[in-house]
Amino acid sequence: GESVGLHLPTLSVQEGDNSIINCAYSNSASDYFIWYKQESGKGPQFIIDIRSNMDKRQGQRVTVLLNKTVKHLSLQIAATQPGDSAVYFCAENRNSWGKLQFGAGTQVVVTP
Amino acid sequence: DGGITQSPKYLFRKEGQNVTLSCEQNLNHDAMYWYRQDPGQGLRLIYYSQIVNDFQKGDIAEGYSVSREKKESFPLTVTSAQKNPTAFYLCASVDRGSYNEQFFGPGTRLTVL
Questions:
Q1: Per residue in A59-101, pLDDT tens?
Q2: Do residue B106 and residue A93 have CB atoms under 8 angstroms apart?
Q3: Distance from first CA to last CA of chain B, Å, rounded?
Q4: Nearest-CA neighbor of A81 among A43, A105, A109?
Q5: What are the CA-CA distances from residue B101 to residues B24, B33, B96, B105 (Å)?
Q6: Of A32, A43, A96, which has the smallest distance from its Cβ to B107's Cβ?
Q7: Which chain B residue shows the shortest CA-CA distance from A36?
Q8: What would you measure as the largest C-alpha separation in chain A, in angstroms?
Q9: What are the pLDDT digits (tens) for B12-45?
Q10: How far apart are CA B112 and CA B78, in angstroms?
Q11: pLDDT per residue as tens digits for the range A23-67
């Protein structure tokens, strides 16, 4: 069936390095792709989204890239900090009512 | 402070009992959602409500029920019909027109003994 999934379950990154979190999707009809961050024991927080007609969007220290040809989404975090340690989820918005479809998540561990 | 709250944070239930999880928001959001999260997995949608007195089933609604009598409240009842209810439950709300940016509560961890 249609799904959103992640390539790597755990990513270990040294503090100060850049992080790249990947996500594969199969539904070409989705309007938006979104990244959320979930710290341990908390609810997810919105990071950034990208519309399906774009291929790049930048935020504060984050960049999302969308490659529709290979149905691939990535989140780049610049100069990774200890506070970036969390689980990162990609999600897709397939309709106008916020019925988001979440991937399984990637655990990012920032080491000193 | 505007936000979304869930209570209780931890909940223990005996098999065969129904239990209701609270979700309240003062963000004046129209839409609210309930998700279930199991260890090492993503979020799965249980129910959602776009407006007061209206709600729809999500992907895993069996064994759950909701109500939306007030804009700010969207309680979830986990019934005895839910075969594997132990999980982390997350409530979210969103402003109409910004459906990608859902605001999540802190979650309720339900354990069935």
A1: 999 999 999 999 999 999 999 999 999 999 999 998 767 789 9
A2: no
A3: 36
A4: A109
A5: 17, 12, 10, 13
A6: A43
A7: B101
A8: 42
A9: 999 999 999 999 999 999 999 999 999 878 899 9
A10: 11
A11: 998 888 888 999 999 999 899 999 999 999 999 999 999 999 999
| A/B interface, count of CB pairs below 8 Å | 59
Cα separation, B100 vs A49, whole angstroms:
7
- Disruptive mutation site among B33, B41, B99 for chain A (greatest number of A CBs within 10 Å): B99
Question: Mutate which of A35, A50, A57, A100 to test chain B, going by most B C-beta atoms within 10 A?
Answer: A100
- Whose tokens are 């009809």? That residue is A29
For chain B, the average pLDDT equals 93
Which residues 76-105 in chain B show a CB within 8 A of chain A? 90, 92, 94, 99-105
